[in-house]
Amino acid sequence: MSERPSEPQTIVIIGGVAGGMSAATRLRRINEQATIIVLERGGEVSFANCGLPYHVGGVIPDRESLVLQKPEQLKARFNIDVHVRTEATAINRADKTVSARDLVTGENRDYPYDALVLSPGSTPFRPPIPGVQEAHVLWNLDDMDSLITSAEKAHSAIVVGGGFIGLELAENLVHRGIQTTLVEALPQLMPTLDVEMAWPLVERGRLRGLDIRLQVAVTEIRSTGVTLADGTSLDSDFVVVAVGARPNTELAVASGLKMGEAGGVWVDDQQRTSDPHIWAVGDVAEKVRPGGHSLVPLAGLANRHGRLAADSIMGRPAAAKIAYGTSIVGFFGVAAASTGYTERVLALQGQAMRVIHTHPVSHAGYYPGASQLAMKLIVDPVTDLILGAQVVGEDGVDKRIDVIATAMSAGLTASDLRDLELSYAPQFASAKDPINMLGYVNENRALGEHSVQWHEVSQKREAGWVLLDVRTSGEYSQGAIPGSELVTLDELREHVQRFRGKRVIVTCRVGQRGHTAASILSQEGIEVANLDGGYLTWNMGMAATEFTQLAPVA
Ligand code: FAD
Question: With a threshold of 0.90, does the pTM exceed it?
């Protein structure tokens, strides 16, 4: 701390959007005397990059509403010197200056600093595919303008990549009336979800006319289409590539700052780099995650860490918390949210897990407008701590994921969800909120109820387990797991003898009646396991993996 620059001081910030501008305004609120200089190579600072796809689709009609602050406003209100179209080209740590080029005049200039904040963000990744330079990307206002110019005269488009930006863009192109194809090399959309939880997005996209191609790579891009790995040639008026981003670490690497294990700039819990006069925030900086470090390119963390870096610079240290990567995407009316790790990632880490699927309604079923959620909770069976959660549905998704993210951040256990006192009226929730229900299911499982996951059913069947469906005959006739026997829950007690000496998987629609059936059979001394999440989860998983070669958890 002795090396912290004394006040007043000059603070230079590289990058003037999420993290950089949060740092700049916070610095000014703390210190009226400091000289605050923002260098931004783009034409605007403080623009809403998260809103770009929605202007492409016309949902946000006014382009100007995406520009949150102009340099002259920032000067007037915060006395911040903003230099747009000015690119930082080198950090000279020995003499504490930043070299920068005015991209309009070509003039070079050095900016001395007492403290430097790096928030240069990331750059959309262009995979090494022949013709990739023909494709659009969507990262800033210039990209958006160029994309809209193409979209204005287009009838068809191809979006390569099924992550956040690919989904948002594909939806917005469809919204514009453009015939759109989404191509994703993985067997699923949204890698922040597990394969079964991502399936509702595929269903909804297809229902709304989006042509979704999964598990097929693009091998060539042309200005008029793409070629796929299976030899298919798809024509379109333009192509957009949205396959992730790489942190802009060039300046940090060239100046010898320590890099982290995931390829971002290493920072301590104050967002301070290995140089005590330099802080890094946002996409460029690594985040501490449970059990390691990784890049988490999300706006909330960039803003929060920008503020935290400003506090640290001004001698108000506050430690950054663990990042869980809490995120949400909207896609044709379906919201898909997650926090923490997926089952897929945890399985790769060899983590023991208790996995819970539920399908509650978003609010009391008797009140109009309720819709069904798909929820997944992943719990450490030893500590009972929550490792991850996913929620997909039309309504109430954001509330549920945010409660779980808050619980994780506070170190609550999965069983603690049972006792959370959450707001309730019929139009918003149920008296037992879906969050409480997760806590109840977790408690049952922790107390010894056996369960089977959707992807384990066929293996268990081969090992001799009987599959018992306890729904009504009407439900059964509309779709059931092949090979299952029907005995409704209300009749089960009369049929217990049939199952003596057998090992039984019970299933129902969502797992709730299965839980009751399992308790009836287990109290009769029968070895029984409840199909987690019931027929609905099994159906999602099987549909999602029908054409994939990969194991669902691999
Ligand atoms: P940015 O906000 O990207 O700012 C970096 C700035 O630095 C850029 O303007 C760049 O021009 C400038 N710069 C780079 N190098 C230099 C240099 N050498 N000299 C000067 N300036 C430089 N996150 C969410 O959480 N939710 C969302 O819904 C969401 N949607 C998104 C949609 C889109 C289309 C995009 C592109 C991103 C989205 N994100 C979303 C991600 C989020 O915007 C980023 O994580 C966040 O903006 C990162 O903040 P940052 O300060 O690190 O970088």
Answer: yes
